[in-house]
Design brief:
The protein has 305 residues and is α+β, with helices and mostly antiparallel strands. It has 7 helices and 17 strands. The protein has helices at residues 47-58, 64-82, 90-113, 119-128, 161-166, 196-212, 285-297; strands at 2-6, 12-16, 23-25, 32-34, 44-45, 87-88, 132-133, 139-142, 147-150, 156-159, 173-177, 182-190, 225-239, 242-253, 256-267, 272-281, 300-301. The protein is rod-shaped, with a radius of gyration of 37 Å. It starts with a strand and ends with a strand.
């Protein structure tokens, strides 16, 4: 870069920037002239770089805000590269881009699981509002078919008929915990001469038959039931005149990973059997299992056989 020097004699001439602050001879009068230091324009921080960082922080977990942070950061880096002598802030831009990508990935992952700050639980509760009855006593009696069961707390409600219909559930009673996305239903069936062990095995086979069935068109190409895995299949001690057995299954239902806790209860000498099913998303089952078992353990048969 060249610097323009003006001699007191009125002659202007140019010298290299390396002579700044030194004396050079005027090419006309040979008088020594001091070369002034170049005047540099102070660098300013790119507004896009600052905007990228601000959007990444303030727009965290909004997807739109974090993606905008990435775009602003890229624009800032391009403008800084083209105007290195005037613009700064590459560090802000890079930090904004990194945070933008990180928060976007976290948000997409959290929304895909419906667990971002409990947003999935809130949406579920609002969607089911009016379709689940949380009123009345905790103890529920159904006569017929002759049983009672106890809700562990007010978070558990009774699914109304329209909800059961929408879910394709034709059980005698369906309980729902909208906060924890957990369910329990009770059905009555006939043994038709089968032992309880045979009946338990037939339940498992019924799920496996669904696994082999072709995908339902309404399910978008997804099988209704798939990936059935038996985690437990055992006979329980007879208590209070009730013969009982238990099955625990992992499976996929319309793409969702679920764990089912099945309890079969037969009054000794009776030809009918009560099927209690408790289930939730597989990743939530360890947390939900104590309440699911509490509901199922509270089950009592009324009126003998």
């Amino acid at each position: 870069m060249s610097l323009t020097v003006t001699c007191p004699c009125g002659v202007c001439f140019e010298v290299e920037e390396t002579f700044a602050g030194r004396s050079v001879g005027c090419p006309d009068c040979q008088r020594p002239v001091t070369v002034p230091a170049p005047q540099r324009v102070p660098l300013r921080t790119s507004g896009f770089a600052i905007g990228s960082l601000v959007l990444a922080l303030l727009g965290a977990f909004t997807i739109i805000g974090t993606l905008a942070a990435v775009v602003c950061g890229i624009v800032a880096l391009v403008r800084i590269a083209r105007n290195r002598d005037r613009l700064a802030g590459a560090g802000f831009a890079l930090f904004g881009i990194i945070l933008g990508f990180a928060f976007t990935a976290l948000t997409v992952f959290a929304f895909s699981r419906g667990e971002l700050f409990g947003v999935g639980d809130q949406i579920r509760a609002q969607t089911m509002a009016g379709r689940v009855d949380h009123g009345g006593p905790l103890e529920i009696v159904r006569q017929p078919p002759g049983f009672k069961i106890v809700r562990p707390n007010e978070r558990w409600g009774i699914a109304r008929a329209e909800l059961q219909k929408d879910l394709g559930n034709d059980s005698s009673l369906m309980l729902v915990n909208t906060v924890h996305d957990a369910y329990v239903d009770i059905s009555v069936d006939q043994l038709n001469g089968r032992t309880l062990e045979v009946y338990r095995n037939s339940l498992i086979e019924s799920y496996r038959r669904q696994e082999d069935a072709p995908p339902a068109p309404a399910g978008g190409g997804l099988r209704q039931v798939s990936d059935v895995k038996v985690k437990a299949n055992r006979q329980l001690p007879t208590e209070g005149g009730l013969e009982m057995g238990e099955v625990v299954l992992d499976l996929r239902q319309t793409g969702q990973r679920l764990t089912f806790l099945l309890r079969v209860v037969r009054p000794v000498g009776s030809g009918r059997v009560f099927l209690l099913r408790g289930w939730s998303m597989r990743r939530r089952f360890p947390v939900n299992e104590p309440e699911l078992r509490k509901v199922i353990d509270s089950f009592e048969v009324l009126g003998g056989r």
